[in-house]
Amino acid sequence: MKIVKIIWYSFLGFLSVMILFILVCAFHPELTKAIAAFLYPDKASEYAVGGQPSNGQSAGGQSADNRPLGGQSAEGWGNGEEGAVPDGTGNGLTSAYVPPVKTDIVIPDNVSGRNGYQPVQEDNTQIADTEAEALRQQIGTGETGEGLTFDPLYYPYYAMLSENGKSLYRQIYANSLHLNSVFAPAQDISVSEIRNIFAAVYNDHPELFWLQTTYTCKYMMDGQCVEIGLQFNRTAQDLDNARTEFEQKAAEIVGGAQNLGSDYEKEKYVHDMLLAKVEYSLSAEMNQSAYSALVNGRTVCAGYARAFQYLMQQLQVPCYYCTGFAGENHAWNIILLEDGYYNVDTTWDDTGEGVYDYFNKTDADYADTHIRQELSVYLPSCNGQRYRTQEIEQVENPDGSGSLRSLSDAGKTESDVLNSIADYYTDCYNQIVQKGSGTYDFSNVLGNIDVLQSWYEVYESGAYSQGYMEEAVLAVGAVRWEMNLRLEELQGGRYLVTHEITIW
After folding, report:
1. Alpha carbon of residue 323 to chain centroid
2. pLDDT (tens digit per residue) in 21-47
3. Which of 102, 255, 286, 292 is the most core-located residue (most Cβ within 10 A)?
4. Which CATH architecture fits 414-503?
5. Distance separating alpha carbons of residues 144 and 184, to the nearest angstrom
6. Are strands 182-183 and 121-126 parallel, antiparallel or unpaired?
7. How far is residue 228 from each of residues 38, 160, 168, 423, measured CA to CA in Å?
């Protein structure tokens, strides 16, 4: 009889432990996945970042209203290789990123503390099933985003998700556009999956500058989310005007870059303009947004990176928001040029006069200062060579001189430097009148990047014609002209403009 009692009590004790374990897993669904990964490590690769089994299908074709016009195709995506992104070079998929050892990170003194990126924050609340049922009757799904597509070449975080994750991504994106702050998931989704999905939307879309980095989720005992809450910054109170101002500021920079000859030239122009227009400030308002950089002109690393991403997207150059660790939480960019991907950190380049110490670098170059974390580890590895910073001088100077030319190398002196567009007009007029009609060239020197931006704008708008050309042509007794322009960066942030002109 004692043996029977012992067996019976042992069985009851075992049963109690199992019931307790089941309840713990129910309250913490992420624990179940962690245990499954430990017991069945060979199955771990079957799960996409969003947490649902990956079916290996393509992330899907072309975007209609949700991608920059033009751009490169993303054929070859969706072969089931997690974290792989098309490299745009016709060479298949990029190799996997290998993060450096965190203890090897050493931050140079001149950029120490220039961080400020805030990771996505979740505020999850478990509610009773009865309250969940009441919520379902009170709120709807809002905008589902049905029919939206996102080209993975421009929106890589979308492509990292499972099909269920992509569905919620589209819903979060669409509700953000319509300022719907509370909605129910259109499909079953667990509380443990939402953070990556929300982060994917946030990372892919710098144009959603009103969207905050914090979201809320109310979920039931079984872990299923029943309500998602989005948070918006103050620009949402007058979004039409805020968006107009944002787009105008972006257009000022995009307009100067869009007619440049190569993606590299466009990238460098945008990089230089951000450094000229933006100031690093840890106390800047809305400093996680592109708005803080482009409109307010004060931001932290997140604002620099999201502004750079947005501007390059507008120029149809694939550019991604990359987050990780660089002494503290930090954000920078990954950009695709003709021969591969590069790292770009505009925040760390903006340390005074404007430098290129962290411009167009490989992962190996960044290994002692930057480590990708979270979803960014699935972005393509950066191994481009042609436009690496140390190679740029040879790209800009085919004669192999190894450095930017000085004023004297260009045959100019300090007295030739022009510090306003009015001075530029006057100098061009005087040189044309002196040389007269015919075919010839002349040059002048723009003194800084602000004058360079004005120079781009007057040729983009055609204002140069009334500014000096019409008067000069009339003064030499001619009626027509043709002109080509060449631009060369000189040492000290000066720019040599050469005009090849025919007047008759």
Report:
1. 10
2. 555 555 454 454 444 444 444 433 332
3. 292
4. 2-Layer Sandwich (3.30)
5. 10
6. unpaired
7. 30, 21, 10, 57
The residue ranges of DSSP E strands in 387-447, in sequence order, are 417-418, 438-446
For the stretch 262-308, pLDDT in tens is 999 999 999 999 999 999 999 999 999 999 999 999 999 999 999 99
Q: Which 3-state string (H, E, C) describes 127-177?
A: CCHHHHHHHHHHCCCCCCCCCCCCCCCCCHHHHCCCHHHHHHHHHHHHHHH
Residues in the chain: 504
**What DSSP letter does each residue of 242-296 carry, written as one string?**
HHHHHHHHHHHHHHHHTTSSSHHHHHHHHHHHHHHH-EE-TT-TTTTSHHIIIII
Stated as kind and residue range, the H or E segment containing 193 is helix 191-204
Closest among 154, 251, 256 to 204, alpha carbons compared: 154
For residues 107 and 435, give the distance between their C-alpha atoms in angstroms, rounded to a whole number.
55
**Alpha carbon separation from 404 to 181, 315, 354, 486 (Å, rounded):** 52, 26, 15, 15
Instruction: Tell me what the mean pLDDT of segment 170-179 comes to.
Output: 96
Distance separating alpha carbons of residues 20 and 332, to the nearest angstrom = 45
Tens digits of residue pLDDT in 197-252: 999 999 999 999 999 999 999 999 999 999 999 999 999 999 999 999 999 999 99
Q: What is the pLDDT of residues 96-116, one digit of tens each?
A: 788 898 888 999 999 999 999
Distance CA 399, CA 121 (A): 52
CATH architecture of 238-396: Roll (3.10)
Residues 185 and 172: their CA atoms lie apart, in Å, by 9
- Number of helical (H) and strand (E) elements in the chain, helices listed first: 17, 15
Identity (one letter) of the amino acid at 38?
F
Separation between Cα atoms, residue 47 and residue 162, nearest integer Å: 8
pLDDT digits (tens, 9 = 90+) for 299-320: 999 999 999 999 999 999 999 9
CA–CA separation, 29 and 48 (whole Å): 17
Alpha carbons 179 and 66: distance in angstroms, whole number: 17
Structure tokens at 417: 């430097």
Strand partners, 160: none
**Dihedrals phi, psi of 47, to nearest 5 degrees:** -105, 130
64 token code pair: 């209609």
Cα–Cα dist 209/307, whole Å: 10
- State the average pLDDT over residues 66-93: 35
Sort residue 176 into left (φ over 0), alpha (ψ -120 to 50) or beta. alpha
How many C-beta neighbours within 10 Å does residue 29 have?
A: 18
